[in-house]
Amino acid sequence: MTRHFLRDDDLSPAEQAEILDLALELKRDRFAVRPLAGPQTVAVIFDKSSTRTRVSFAVGIADLGGSPLIISTANSQLGGKETASDTARVLERQVAAIVWRTYGQAGLEEMAHGTTVPVINALSDDFHPCQLLADLLTIREHRGDLAGQTLAFLGDGACNMGQSYLLAGATAGMHVRIASPAGYTPTDAVVADATAIALRTGGSVALFTDPLEAVAGVDVVITDTWVSMGKEEEKATRLGDLGRYRVDADMMALAKPGAHFMHCLPADRGYEVTADVIDGPQSIIWDEAENRLHAQKALLVWLLAHNA
Ligand code: CP
Ligand code: NVA
């Protein structure tokens, strides 16, 4: 069975920890392993815009000795004339892995089902699991062991980042709090999956509507854009609905002294977070962005080894 990485809980707690360990090693010695030397090609497909994901996969694949092939669906057959599974059948004869940023999770599942090479979710409407590997790595570097730490994610809890924090945080044995208004809560299925994982890892999952209650005493405060890609038409409503969840200095003051602030970027300063917080001393966003490179390289090395 080919191993894919479509959602955060595709990795067991031990596998997640192994990949984070490897990411730290690769961060110390960037060219230590070159499993893609040849070079083998990795296809990196984008249905949506990207800066960090595009750059970190391109650079990471090159670091591993491989050759990245960046494809925009706007000028490919995928999504127009051709299905995900037919595309997968074509690509698998020529590439070592497929990385795809898309809308629906179902497309990724179809792609993975149709192919023998690993498929990696580079962000869907439901999950952003590569970002979470980078985020967990960053928390580990700044705050030590992940298990037992408490996170609060504020704002659009139904977006890919909120849902991935539930699954990946629970897998790491963390206490994950999501604060969001009605209509912006994670799906019941994801909450149930994360709760089941947390029961095994010693973590926990809690949903709040009051952001002040959610941030009380936490180690890390996290937010994300209120207008995810694909939601642009709802912008005015979303800005109104989510205003109470803005992370500002008063909000950070309720967290643990020395708590950190994180954001996957891109950020809308003045909306989900104020400039003094995201650009202030508690913010670790630049390490978080850099860690996309190291975490994804480790993921690729691990998936290639487990599909050899
Ligand atoms: N955080 C993140 O995935 O950024 P990009 O949209 O720039 O890839
Ligand atoms: N939730 C955001 C994340 C961007 C990296 C979006 O989907 O647009």
TrEMBL record:
Residues that hold L-ornithine according to the record: N160, D224, S228, M229
Record key words, sorted: Cytoplasm, Transferase
Subcellular location: Cytoplasm
EC number(s) per entry: 2.1.3.3
Catalytic activity: carbamoyl phosphate + L-ornithine = L-citrulline + phosphate + H(+)
Any single biological process term in GO: L-arginine biosynthetic process via ornithine
An example molecular function term from Gene Ontology annotations: ornithine carbamoyltransferase activity
Pathway of action: Amino-acid biosynthesis; L-arginine biosynthesis; L-arginine from L-ornithine and carbamoyl phosphate: step 1/3
Domain Aspartate/ornithine carbamoyltransferase Asp/Orn-binding: from-to ranges: 148-303
Any GO CC annotation of this UniProt entry: cytoplasm
Major enzyme class: transferase
Binding site for carbamoyl phosphate: S50, T51, R52, T53, Q77, R101, H128, P129, C130, Q131, C264, L265, R292
InterPro entries reported in the protein's UniProt record: Asp/Orn_carbamoyltranf_P-bd (IPR006132), Asp/Orn_carbamoylTrfase (IPR006130), Asp/Orn_carbamoylTrfase_sf (IPR036901), Asp_carbamoyltransf_Asp/Orn-bd (IPR006131), Orn/put_carbamltrans (IPR002292), OTCase_ArgI (IPR024904)
Signal peptide (from-to): none
Keyword Amino-acid biosynthesis recorded: no
Domain Aspartate/ornithine carbamoyltransferase carbamoyl-P binding: 3-141
Classification via Pfam families: OTCace (PF00185), OTCace_N (PF02729)
Keyword set includes Ubl conjugation: no
NCBIfam families named in the record: orni_carb_tr, PRK00779.1
The family this protein is said to belong to: Belongs to the aspartate/ornithine carbamoyltransferase superfamily. OTCase family.
Protein name per its UniProtKB record: Ornithine carbamoyltransferase
Lineage of origin: Bacteria, Bacillati, Actinomycetota, Actinomycetes, Micrococcales
